[in-house]
Recover the amino acids of this structure.
């Protein structure tokens, strides 16, 4: 559950009032607020934050691989509200066998490339993404380079034709 | 078959053939080696006559896996690869990386190092903007500006070389302060440059601001409304040219920017010309910041008093047992950064750059995510291209001021 000090902050309080079960956890370290949610609620929560809390900017979407710990992936959404001068990180935990999360492209158009990058680098699938293809690696690449079990010096068999 | 060819054909195949009876379209492949993209960018354009109906950027040609490399290097070593992302704003990148790491370490940076960082970051902003202006004007047919701009760039690179020994890959800002003591006579070199610089900006302005050819090619070209640009994740001069007075140096000051007096330029027309005016004014404001930093440069240490992070002075290392032990520990084992994560946004010449740094308590980063401004800005390319003339794409590309190394990392 949310720690006491976070419940008193404006944004988490507003979220709790909107949907008491939207947040599954949170932390406040060095002045940076991190809130945990679930993949069932991520899109609705983003829409709420954009509409009611002026989080008009999606700074980035990225991912952390906690291999070999399960749930392995943490998809991180970095949000910013210019009028409130407030930053916030949302996180969703995903298990390795089921790394799928709904896309937030419908909320911010800018999520498009960031979600493609996470798909390319970590193999997390974004449901409802308009154009989920690799973005930085070539189309024929096999594997997802930023996974912790992908060797730093590449894989001998990453090229299909070799 | 060569894998590269298959990828190219595969992407061109994605474009559906026109339905029978529909107007004929032309598919034009711009890049990856088109000179006006200043890097390796490929854009697939669909044309109806001279109008661009669809533009699809294809990136990744310069991807070198910098984020993956960062996970295999020590904390201090990662500074060197941040240089290689964006060759025009190395010092801003260095600064953007060290700030979140210092936040995790909880170390206090002495005022002199902070001011020095501001001074260097502003010099690199000027460096980036003069290169942008020169090449942008060259794309639009004005050659003289290019030579003028590179004249100033040469002086700046000499200053960077004086500080760090390198013209471009400076790696001068390090975790805990600076890499080396500022060299003797640095203030004279910077002062000589910065005194004359505002006049040079006037020269650029005189060449372009009322030049009818330049005006024709820039005014009203590549317009996009503010809401759309914000939604697409655009930051920096492009967003200020669309009427939003938002600058991270003012909104969330870092490295004691709150002590400097400067103005954030804003324009409303959100076209190529507005972006030109913004960057021109930013050069002047950067020059003002550098002058203030020169005048008020605090005395004192240029690196933090953090023996577990910063290497001791050579003299101490040779005479004191403790210093020798710390030196040995840092060199052989590396710096331990407490577990946790941090993100500090920094206003680079192109917009918001931020390193989202995750540590597991070890001597190597667990994850370094680089939120680069060029990647976010380039996503707005279709918005600037579609429905407009193909001849304007060159001006639109130039006005975005991206560095492909920064996009692909």
């Amino acid at each position: 559950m949310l720690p006491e000090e976070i419940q008193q902050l404006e944004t988490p309080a507003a979220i709790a009032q909107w949907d008491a079960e939207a947040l599954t956890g949170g932390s406040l370290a060095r002045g940076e607020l991190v809130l945990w949610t679930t993949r069932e609620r991520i899109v609705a929560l983003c829409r709420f934050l954009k509409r009611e809390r002026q989080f008009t900017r999606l700074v980035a979407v990225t991912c952390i691989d906690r291999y070999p710990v399960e749930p392995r992936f943490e998809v991180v959404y970095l949000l910013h509200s210019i009028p409130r001068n407030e930053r916030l990180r949302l996180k969703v935990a995903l298990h390795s066998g089921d790394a799928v999360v709904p896309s937030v492209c419908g909320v911010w158009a800018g999520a498009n490339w960031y979600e493609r990058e996470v798909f390319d680098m970590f193999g997390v699938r974004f449901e409802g993404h308009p154009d989920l293809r690799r973005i930085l690696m070539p189309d024929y690449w096999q594997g997802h380079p930023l996974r912790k079990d992908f060797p730093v010096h590449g894989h001998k068999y990453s090229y299909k034709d070799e | 078959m060569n894998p590269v060819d298959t990828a190219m054909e595969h992407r061109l195949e994605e474009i559906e053939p026109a339905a029978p009876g529909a107007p004929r379209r032309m598919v034009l492949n711009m890049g990856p080696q088109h000179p006006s993209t200043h890097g390796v960018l490929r854009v697939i354009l669909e044309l109806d006559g001279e109008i661009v109906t669809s533009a699809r950027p294809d990136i990744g040609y310069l991807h070198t896996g910098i984020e993956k490399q960062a996970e295999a290097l020590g904390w201090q070593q990662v500074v060197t690869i941040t240089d290689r992302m964006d060759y025009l704003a190395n010092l801003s990148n260095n600064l953007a990386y060290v700030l979140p790491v210092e936040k995790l370490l909880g170390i206090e940076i002495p005022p002199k190092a902070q001011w020095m960082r501001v001074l260097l970051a502003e010099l690199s902003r000027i460096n980036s903007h003069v290169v942008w202006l020169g090449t942008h004007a060259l794309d639009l047919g004005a050659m003289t500006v290019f030579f003028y701009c590179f004249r100033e760039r040469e002086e700046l690179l000499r200053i960077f070389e004086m500080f760090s020994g390198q013209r471009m890959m400076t790696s001068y800002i390090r975790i805990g302060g600076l890499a080396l003591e500022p060299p003797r006579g640095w203030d004279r070199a910077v002062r000589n440059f910065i005194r004359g610089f505002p006049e040079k900006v006037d020269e650029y302005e005189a060449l372009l601001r009322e030049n009818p050819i330049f005006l024709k090619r820039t005014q009203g070209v590549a317009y996009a409304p503010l809401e759309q640009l914000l939604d697409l994740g655009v930051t920096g001069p492009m967003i200020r040219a669309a009427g939003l007075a938002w600058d991270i140096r003012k909104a969330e000051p870092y490295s004691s920017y709150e002590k400097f007096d400067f103005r954030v330029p804003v324009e409303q027309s959100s076209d190529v010309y507005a972006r030109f005016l913004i960057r021109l004014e930013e050069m002047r404001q950067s020059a003002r910041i550098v002058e203030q930093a020169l005048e008020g440069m605090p005395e004192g240490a240029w690196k933090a008093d953090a023996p577990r992070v910063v290497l001791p002075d050579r003299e101490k290392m040779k005479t004191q047992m403790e210093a020798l032990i710390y030196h040995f520990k840092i060199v052989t084992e590396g710096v331990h950064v407490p577990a946790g994560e941090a993100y500090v946004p920094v206003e680079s010449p192109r917009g918001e750059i931020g390193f989202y740094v995750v540590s597991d308590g070890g001597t190597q980063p667990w994850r370094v995510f680089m939120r680069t401004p060029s990647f976010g800005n380039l996503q707005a390319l279709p918005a600037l291209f579609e429905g407009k003339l193909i001849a304007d794409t060159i001006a639109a590309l130039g006005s975005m001021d991206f560095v492909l190394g920064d996009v692909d990392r």
